[in-house]
Design a protein that fits this description.
Helix content: 25-40%
Largest sheet: 5 strands, parallel
Radius of gyration: 24 Å
Distance between the termini: 43 Å
Strand content: 5-15%
Number of helices: 11
Structural class: alpha/beta
Number of domains: 2
Number of strands: 9
CATH topology of the largest domain: Rossmann fold
CATH architecture of the largest domain: 3-Layer(aba) Sandwich
Length: about 300
């Protein structure tokens, strides 16, 4: 399913008081917006709730399971008292969980990257994901629970989720849609439109898999292109687009393709295109597609002759 389709479906569950009965598990390649589904959903829940007179915004809590320990889910043990039993072991919940268990709270809990979590964390998380509780602490019935993760075929250190888990939740594959992403990207303040223009010309470069990464382990994702777009204008003025793009996780050969297209996508003030140059970064032999005579990738606009602008 596409991004907006999943958000609309989840919002319908919430509006029809079905949040408690439905745990959604979103699977897909890295960097395509799985966590963003929950954040967008929370924003739309806020709009819907305020339309009915609510004053509080929806809570959106993201728990990165790949970097958590089991006690970050189950809570920390302490010595308590139980009438008739003397001393017993009780558990103090984490602050984020306690907040989502309060009466009247509504929003989204995103349990991020479950297949990449340690086995102990996965075990601790399943009770929360399947039963909406940790011990005697129950999630508010108005909180939608979304689990996200990569698939084993994505080659991103993900494990296969147990059969009983897959059989108990709503399993959805998030599909990348170029038009949908470009529309979202165009609404992001301060992001260079040249990124979306390039990807409309080369849609296959929007998203890739770790198994197809370059020698540095970089592979294209909507997340990486978005991060590049947020700093592109500064990098372009300082003529450091290539190293900045690489630092943002874009593969070298895809950066060079982007810089090649730069000639057509960006015009200098006064109507003149950027000066022709040549990408000086060394390329692996299998990346020499459309290369220049010297084996480098032709990159018009990268080594241009414009005055250096440090601002």
């Amino acid at each position: 399913m596409k991004f907006d389709e999943i958000v609309d479906l989840s919002l319908s569950f919430w509006l029809n008081d079905m949040a408690k009965a439905t745990t959604i598990c979103l699977l897909g390649p890295p960097g395509i917006g799985k966590s963003a589904v929950g954040k967008t959903l929370a924003a739309r829940m806020t709009v819907a709730a305020r339309g009915k007179g609510a004053s509080e915004s929806a809570v959106c809590e993201v728990v990165d399971l790949s970097s958590r320990a089991p006690e970050d889910i189950s809570g920390l043990p302490f010595k308590g008292n139980e009438l008739g039993f003397g001393s017993v072991t009780d558990y103090a919940p984490q602050r984020w969980l306690a907040r989502l268990c309060q009466d009247g709270v509504y929003g989204v809990l995103i349990l991020d990257d479950l297949p990449a979590a340690s086995p102990a964390v996965q075990v601790a998380t399943r009770q929360l994901a399947l039963d909406r509780r940790v011990g005697d602490k129950h999630l508010s019935p108005n909180v939608i629970l979304i689990v996200t993760g990569n698939r084993r075929e994505d080659k991103s250190a993900a494990t296969t989720l147990p059969a009983h888990f897959r059989n108990s939740v709503m399993m959805l594959d998030l599909q990348v849609d170029l038009d949908e992403w470009c529309a979202w990207y165009g609404g992001q303040e301060g992001h260079a439109p040249v990124i979306a223009s390039f990807l409309r010309r080369r849609p296959a470069l929007l998203s890739g898999l770790p198994s197809n990464s370059d020698s540095r382990g970089a592979f294209p994702t909507p997340r990486a292109w978005t991060k590049l777009g947020s700093v592109y204008d500064i990098a372009e003025r300082r003529r450091v687009v290539l190293p900045v793009a690489e630092a943002r996780g874009i593969p070298l050969h895809d950066v060079c393709r982007f810089l090649d297209a730069h000639f057509d996508l960006v015009q200098q003030p006064g109507g003149e295109p950027p000066g022709h140059g040549r990408c000086i970064a060394p390329l692996h032999p299998d990346q020499h597609q459309q290369s220049g005579a010297d084996g480098g990738y032709s990159c018009p606009g990268y080594l241009d002759t414009r005055p250096f602008n440090p601002l």
